[in-house]
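To: structure desk
From: M.T.
Subject: fold request, one chain
Message: Could you run this one when you get a chance? Sequence is below, nothing fancy, just the single chain.
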Amino acid sequence: MKDKNKVGYCSPPKASQFKKGQSGNPKGRPKDTSKSIDNIYDIAILFLKECEQEILINERGENRSITVINAVFKQALAKAAKGDMRSIEFVSTMLSRSAQLKEAYDRRKLRVKAKRFQNEIIDQLNDEEFREVYKAVKSFREN
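Reply: Done. Structure tokens follow.
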């Protein structure tokens, strides 16, 4: 027969045992806040602010003030020109992405201009002309 008050291996003291109905970890594991959307936006804003900070550089014997992001690109271009493969990869990626963004921006600008032009033409039409144009566009879309 086992002694109920015995303390030892597999028999912790009664005072340190979990009480009936009480969880072993009442507060639970804390939530991971590193993946919180608010934190991601805060980090992005902080990062962009740091990229806009001015730093002093010495270029051809003259001190100049440029933004951190400009300094990063200058350094990457200089290293790429010397043949550093990582810098070449970085610069080529940035060039292709910049070209894509510029192309998308130009397309959007063109669409906005076309929409304005379309609205100007529509504003100049009287009601009867507008109805004719509307019917023509509707029949064109149905075909």
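Reply (cont.): The beta strands are 54-59, 62-67. Let me know if you need anything else for the meeting.
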